[in-house]
Amino acid sequence: MRSWFFASILGIGLSMAAQAGDDIKVGVVLPYSGVYASLGADITDGMQLALDLYGSEIAGRKIVLITEDSEVKPTIGLTKTKKLVFQDKVDLLVGPVASNVAGAMRDFVHNAKLPLIIPNAGNNLLTGEKCSPWVIRTSFSNDQINRVMGPWLYEQGHRTLYLMAPDYAAGHQMMDAVRRGFVKAGGEVIGEEYPPLRETKDFAPYLAKVKATGPDALYVFFAGGLAIQFVKQYHDFGLKTEMQLTGAGWLTSPLFLPAQGSAAKGFTGALNYVPTIDSDENREFQFAFNEKYERIASEFTVQGFDTGRLIVEALKITGGETADKAAFVKAIHAVEFTGPRGPFRIDPLTNNVIQDIYIFETRQVGYSIRHVVIDKIPNVQDPPNGCVM
Ligand code: BEZ
């Protein structure tokens, strides 16, 4: 049995003072296989680009990424986290993508007092009731993206909504967020479906129920392989002419659009980034990413990129010092910048990012399908939601 396993049981071996010249080890727990594999790859590439651009060596210490595959499985995510901490002795952690994996990692990281920067998983609890001084999120909370859409859809004239999302923490939290705002505005949720996260290959039975119910709009959250499959089947079912397809904006991410093609047309979503944001920062970022990786950067890439930039800027403040974890987190709170998605800063009250949220429509522009921004809600900040640091 490996020594890190014994250390894990005994709860020892967490803090070893770094020497000048030692590498700064960043343990990365992301999915490189399973339903969210492409998201993990985009986040990693974004982080690597940030290190290239903002500095991969601070005060003589090289920043190195040690990556582990979470497989989108909570127990695997936690095991890999422990391996990175006890065996590789990482200075900080980055990950994961999925809310259920984040939930499994939270207590270990909190007790270890090791900074964990979340570049995707939106689990509300981790910056709410179960917040921790050591858990910082650069991406979004599930509530932050979706709660703006309830009142917005009502204002657009929709009065009945059907909800659909994978059956795990993120799916339920997102649907609860949109329901709250929509019902408060006067609308009604007339049906909901939660297909399994990993096993769903066919949406036909769910789409048949939606068709029979006939809501004004169908509000969904799907990402990864599920998003590609769902959009194609929704199109084939011919529901487009009967109701508005809307939801959390990952559904038509630039990561999935090439596989979805024109089936993605007409979707309306909310997200923290779309590639069409009209700013110099975004244009420069897309140019640099395209030069290195020869593809369009997605919102996941941006979250990885901003995570990498945040780490570099915080390390510049601490002079490359990582032994004092509280000083590192304090430095994180001091970092502010305008990046590809707009103004970026971490809220010290919850450790969740404060950011603009974009409402867009996926439209055909010329020969390509593009994200056309139709509304923007600036500086969206989560309330503490029970968070006491
Ligand atoms: C989540 O599990 O939190 C999540 C996964 C993919 C996209 C957005 C959120």
Molecular structure report:
Helices cover 39% and strands 22% of the residues. By secondary structure, it is α/β, with parallel strands linked by helices. Bound molecules: benzoic acid.
Provide a concise account of the structure shown.
With 389 residues, the protein is an alpha/beta fold. The chain has helices spanning 3-10, 37-54, 74-87, 99-112, 142-146, 149-155, 169-185, 204-213, 225-236, 257-260, 280-293, 299-318, 325-334; strands spanning 24-30, 57-58, 61-69, 92-94, 116-118, 135-137, 160-164, 188-193, 217-220, 244-248, 268-271, 336-339, 342-346, 353-365, 368-380. The site of benzoic acid has 11 residues, from loops.
Mean pLDDT: 94
| Low-pLDDT stretches | 1-17
State the major sheet. Answer: 9 strands, mixed
Strand content: 15-25%
Structural class comes to alpha/beta
For the secondary structure, the number of strands is 15
Radius of gyration: 21 Å
Helix content: 25-40%
Q: Tell me the distance between the termini.
A: 36 Å
Small-molecule components bound: benzoic acid
Could you state the order of secondary-structure elements as H and E?
Answer: HEHEEHEHEEHHEHEHEHEHEHHHEEEE
**How many H/I helices?**
13
Quick one: overall form?
globular
Give the arrangement of secondary structure elements.
Blueprint: H1 3-10, E1 24-30, H2 37-54, E2 57-58, E3 61-69, H3 74-87, E4 92-94, H4 99-112, E5 116-118, E6 135-137, H5 142-146, H6 149-155, E7 160-164, H7 169-185, E8 188-193, H8 204-213, E9 217-220, H9 225-236, E10 244-248, H10 257-260, E11 268-271, H11 280-293, H12 299-318, H13 325-334, E12 336-339, E13 342-346, E14 353-365, E15 368-380
The chain binds benzoic acid (BEZ).
Benzoic acid is lined by residues 36, 97-99, 120-123, 170, 223, 250.
